[in-house]
Automatic annotation (TrEMBL):
One of its GO terms (biological process) is alkanesulfonate transmembrane transport. The keyword Signal applies. Its main location: periplasm. Belongs to the bacterial solute-binding protein SsuA/TauA family. One of its GO terms (cellular component) is periplasmic space. Pfam families: NMT1_2. Residues 1-24 form the signal peptide. It is found in: Periplasm. This is NitT/TauT family transport system substrate-binding protein. PANTHER family: ALIPHATIC SULFONATES-BINDING PROTEIN-RELATED, TAURINE-BINDING PERIPLASMIC PROTEIN. Keywords: Signal. The keyword Signal applies.
Amino acid sequence: MRFRPLTRACLVIAALSVLVTACSSEKTTSNSANGLEKTDITIGMLPLPEVAPVQIAISRGFFKAEGLNVNYKLIEGGAAALPTLLSGGFDVLHSNYVSAFTAASQNLADLKVIAEATVATPGSFVLLTAPNSHVTKVEDLKGKKIGVNTKKNVATLSTSVTLKVHGLDVTRDKIDFIEVPFPNMWQALKSGQVDAAFLPEPFVSAAAADGGVKLADTMAGPTDSFPIAGYFVTSEFASKSPKTLAAFQRALLKAQTIAANDRKAVAEAIPQYTKINAQTAQIMQLPGFPITTNAVRLQRVSDLMLEYGYLTKPFDVNSLLLGGQK
């Protein structure tokens, strides 16, 4: 059979079109099949150094490489933001463990820990006072007010432990915890609204530069290398979007590994999502960035919560871990 030139050309063009369409279709199918029950992910997180890996993963395209479009919204505390996670406003929540474990133990939230965010390092979470304060040592806090970002969280728990080490008891010695957002804490100290304050970095460095006086490192002794915060999802999200969750974890792990080994990468990331300037980011004390989720490590938090009355009965953190983490 002979083809006229025009007919043969048309067939070639048609064949090429089919080939291109097939390749394009194959790529699209591959992207969705690789795991994306959901592609747009919103994280609720505090503007603290501990979430630098999220920014690293965004900036270096780790999430995009997994087919995810990840955005974040800044929050003031994990406890206050938990209802937003439960209502679907956040897909992932960065929260301190104390708030999350409290909610889970009371059956207020069905949560899963998908990754650890940080563990404490010396000097990263401290009690401070203002210059010329009458409070010059921890023992002077009897009957005083201590500023924390939210109550019943890692700030109040670790501070309570520190007070006990120095012979004080929050209830017996009538010590009050006053809620003040971290960005406003230093002003609250200077104005006398609170007598001392629990502060993480970068607020520690900023206050110290303005004359703030360190009373105690709250992450020492019983709380040395204490797990601080992690990334949480609802159990419903974990069960309905397992491929999306796995993709998120892979991207975050790459960034977490970089953060654990490259201070410069963390320092470069921090100013992108906080008001911390580059100079402060380079010199401030950074937390530790775990690259595994460890049940034994996290159980320390639960056990200390039980000891200090944050829990009414023992709570096994294994109930919050995904199958592959246990």
